[in-house]
Amino acid sequence: MEATDIEDLQLEVIQALCRLSKDDLVDFCNTVDIVGCEFERVQNKSQVMLIMMISSHLQRQELGKLEDQGMSQLLYIRDIIQEYPNVRELSATENVLQAVLQAKIKQNEVAVAVNQNTE
User: 89-119 as b/e, with b when 16 or more CB fall inside 10 Å?
Assistant: First the structure.
């Protein structure tokens, strides 16, 4: 497993976390048991602090020592995050935008090819 694969997945997860509300982040921490018995302490944190705390959890050294370097844990966390409505809706929108962007790129490539052939 390449470090870039892990880093790409970490970045994807952190970007998805940024789409969650504070309440969703607190729920997420409880769901994946990031804070354990300190759940009350998490409820008092801001959205930014929760994202930073979860990010630190995702980048902890114990994950790097696992056989898969924590990839299975990151995939599990990504799957949980994608169950939240805000993330799911935005992912669908991003997919549409990605398809539109790819269509525009192809359209431009065709236009360039036509222009080159006419010259």
Answer: eeeeeeeeeeeeeeeeeeeeeeeeeeeeeee
Q: Enumerate the H helices of 3-84 as residue ranges.
A: 3-17, 22-31, 39-43, 47-58, 61-64, 71-81
Tell the burial category of 29 from Cβ atoms under 10 Å away from its Cβ (0-12, 13-18, 19+).
Answer: buried
DSSP state of 38: G
pLDDT in tens, 98-112: 666 677 777 777 777
Q: What is the pLDDT of residues 61-98, one digit of tens each?
A: 777 777 787 888 889 888 999 888 877 665 555 656 66
Query: Are the C-beta atoms of 78 and 13 separated by less than 8 Å?
Result: yes
What is the reported pTM? 0.63
Residue-range domain boundaries for the chain: 3-83, 88-119
